[in-house]
Amino acid sequence: MKNKLKPLVKEAKKTTQKAIQLSLVAQLKDITAKFAVGSKKLDKQIQKEAKKLAKKFAKDIKIDTATLVKVDDQPKALEAPKVAPAKTKTTAEPVVKKTTAKTAAL
Asked: Nearest CA to 47 among 34, 32, 62, 65?
């Protein structure tokens, strides 16, 4: 049981970390846009520091394993294979052959 939970908890922490990072980046970019013109250097630094901070926050987050177990134990519904609709022409256009001087004379 514990062996199954470990990867689920790790994945949940990564997802949480990514969500925190994206939230921090969006908010910091909004704030910096109000006070100064954005630059690539500033955006790069915001990305870097937000990643570090999100990693620190995600480390301290406790994941509720009971909810992970409930989600994992549910059988996955079989999905019907998706079939692309057949391509059909909606309007029938007559095919016009180009005639040359030789074929017109015959």
From this structure: 32
Helices (H), 1-106: 2-35, 40-60, 65-73, 101-105
- What's the number of domains the chain is made of? 1
- Termini Cα distance of the chain: 86
pTM of the model: 0.57
Contact 32, 38 (CB under 8 A): yes
CA 91 from chain centre, in angstroms, equals: 37
- Tens of pLDDT, residue by residue over 33-74, are 888 777 889 899 999 999 999 999 888 888 777 766 665 555
Domain containing residue 49: 2-73
